[in-house]
Amino acid sequence: MEKRTDKNSYTILFAIAMVIVVGGLLAFTASALRPKIDNNERLEKQQNILYAMGVNENEGNSAIFVSTKKAPELFKQYIKKQLVIEGDKVSEDDNAYLIDVKKQQTSAKAGNVRKLPLFVGEKDGQTFYIAPIRGKGLWDAVWAYIAMDENMVVQGAYFDHKGETAGLGANIKQRFFMDDFIGEHLKSNGSFKGINISKSNNDPKNEDKTDNEVDAIAGATITGDGVAAMIKSELKQYVPYFENLKKN
Amino acid sequence: MGLLSKKDAALITDPLADNNPITIQVLGICSALAITAELEAAIVMSVSVLFVLAIGNVVISLMRNIIPSKIRIIVQLIVVAALVIIVDQVLKAFAYELSKTLSVFVGLIITNCIIMGRFEAFALANKPWRSFLDGIGNALGYGVILIIVAFFRELLGAGTLLGIPVLGDPIEKTGLYALGYENNGFMIMPPMALIVVGIIIWVQRSRNKALIED
After folding, report:
1. Residue A209 in contact with residue A182, Cβ under 8 Å?
2. To which H or E segment does residue A217 belong?
3. What burial class does residue B22 get, using C-beta atoms within 10 Å of its C-beta: 0-12 exposed, 13-18 middle, 19+ buried?
4. One pLDDT digit (tens) per residue for chain B, 214 residues
5. Alpha-carbon distance B101 to A166, whole Å?
C-alpha cells in the first residue's frame, strides 16, 4: 500500500504549510530585528567615516574602529559639515551620511542628477573631505570612504566589501592595503587621474606617492581592478567641487 | 567514553578519520577550495558549519516521518536556508561585528554539500540525538581538513599564520627571507587547495589500505 506521505495531496499540503511556516518565520524575524539592524548600520557608517579621517583605535596591524558607544558623539565632534552636492548646487544636510550611494547611482543612470554626499571633518587643525563611494569587486559590491585634502591628496581610506574571497580580495580591508593609499595623489599634473592598483609598479613599499599607483594584492586582481575603477569613476564626480573650492 | 555508548561515540570519531566527509565521502570540496587561503577564515567556516549541521540534522531528524519523499531535497534546502538566514539576522542585530565576518560564509554554508549530504544520508533515517552527534562528527571532520589545508596555504603562500607573520618580513627581507626564501604565490590560488587535499587523501590511504577502492 502507498504510504501516507507519498500521496500527491499530502505532498502539496505539506509544501504549502512549509512555505507558510518558513515564510512567516523569516518575515517575523526580519521585521522584528529591522530597527536594531538599521541602527547598527547607521553606527557603522559613522565609524567608517571617522576611520577614514584617522579617528580610530588602530593597534599594531589591525584596523579598529572607535567603539559604537562613542561613535555618535565623536561624529558630532569631528564632522563639521555634511554636504550634498547636486550638480552645481551644494547644500548642507545633517543626515547626508544616510544617503544610499547605490540608489543614487541607479537614479543617475536613469538620467536624474545624482546626490553626492561629502563630509567635511576637522582634526588637529587639518580639514578632511570624506567621500563615500561604491563599485563592483569580483563577487559582489565593494565600497569605500576616502578622506582627501583640498588638493585631492588621499589622507585616509577605509575599504569594505560584501563577499570578496577570504584571504584574497577580502584583504582590501586590511591595513597593509588601506594604508598604502595615505598620501597618494588622485591628480596628476593638475588633472584627475585616480589611483591604479598595480601589479608591476616596482614600488612595494609605496614610497612614490605621486605615481597614482598602489601595490596590488596577489591573487586579487579582479577585486583590485574593481577598486581602481570605483575610485576613478566615483571620485571624478567630486572634481568640480574641489575646483570651486580653490577658486573661492 | 562514559558519556556516550560505543556506537554513539563512533558517530563522532569515524568522520574524523576513516569516514571523513572531505577525503572519503568527497563532500564539501567547493568550500574547501574557496576559503582555505587563510587559517582564520577556515576556522570561522568550520565553526559555522558545526553549528548549522548539528542543528539542521536535529530539525530534519524530527521531521523525518512527515517529510514527503518526493520533495525531500527541497524541504532540506529550505530548512538549512531558513536556519542560516535567521542566524545571520540575529547576529546582525545583536553581534554586528561578528556578523560582518560571517556574512561572506552564509552563501557558502547553504550550498555546502556536506550539509545536504548528511541530511539525506543520515538525519532522514535516524533519531534526533544520533543525528546531532553525526552532525558534530562530520562538521569536525570537515573542519580538521579545512584547518590543515589552510595552515599550509597561509604559511607557504603568505608566510603568516592567523595573519601574524611567522617567517619574517618579505619586503624588509628579515627572518627566513634574509636567506633567500620567497613566498609561493601559487599556494594562495584555489588549485593548490585541491593539490593539498589530494596529498592528504594520499597520505591517509597509504596508511590505511582498507580505504582504497578498487
Report:
1. no
2. none
3. buried
4. 456 777 888 888 888 877 888 888 788 787 788 778 888 888 888 888 898 899 999 999 999 888 888 888 899 889 888 888 888 888 888 888 778 777 777 777 887 888 888 898 889 889 999 999 999 999 999 899 989 999 999 888 888 888 788 887 777 777 788 888 888 878 888 888 889 999 988 888 888 877 777 6
5. 10
Scored b (16 or more CB within 10 A) or e, B97-125 reads: eebbbbebbbebbbebbbbbbbbeebbbe
- Give backbone dihedrals phi and psi of B197, rounded to 5 degrees, phi first: -60, -40
Residue A2 lies in a domain: no
Asked if residue B120 belongs to a domain, the reply is yes
Of A100, A155, A141, A135, nearest to A227 (Cα)? Answer: A135
Backbone dihedral region for residue A170 (phi beyond 0: left; psi -120 to 50: alpha; all else: beta): alpha
Beta pairing partners, A144: A133, A159
Q: Nearest by CB to A26, which of B85, B94, B105?
A: B85
Query: Mean per-residue pLDDT for A17-45?
Result: 92
Question: Do A167 and B71 lie within an 8 Å CB cutoff?
Answer: no
Q: Grid coordinates standing for B111?
A: 550550498
Considering chain A, what percentage of its residues have pLDDT values greater than 90?
Answer: 36
Distance of CA A206 to CAs A87, A220, B160, Å?
35, 18, 21
pLDDT at A169 over 50: yes
Residues of chain B contacting residue A43, judged by C-beta atoms under 8 Å apart: 96
Q: Which of B89, B90, B171 shows the shortest C-beta gap to A204?
A: B171
Asked if the structure places residue A117 within a domain, the reply is yes
DSSP state of B69: G
Residue in B68, B78, B158 closest to A5 by CB: B68
> What is the number of helices (H) and of strands (E) in chain A?
6, 10
Residue B21: inside a domain: no
Chain-chain contact of A33 with B96 (C-beta, under 8 angstroms): no
Closest chain B CA to residue A33:
B93
Q: How close does chain B come to A211, measured CA to CA in Å?
A: 20
Three-state DSSP at A71 gives helix
Domains in chain B, number: 1
**Predicted-complex ipTM score:** 0.73
Q: Does A21 map to a domain?
A: no
Distance in Å from the first CA to the final CA of chain B = 35
Is the residue at B3 inside a domain? Answer: no
* Residue A55: inside a domain: yes
Tell me the shortest Cα–Cα distance from A174 to chain B, in angstroms: 10
Subunit contact B188:A167, Cβ cutoff 8 A: yes
Residue ranges making up the domain that contains B125: 28-206
On whether any CB of chain A is under 8 Å from the CB of B182, the answer is: no
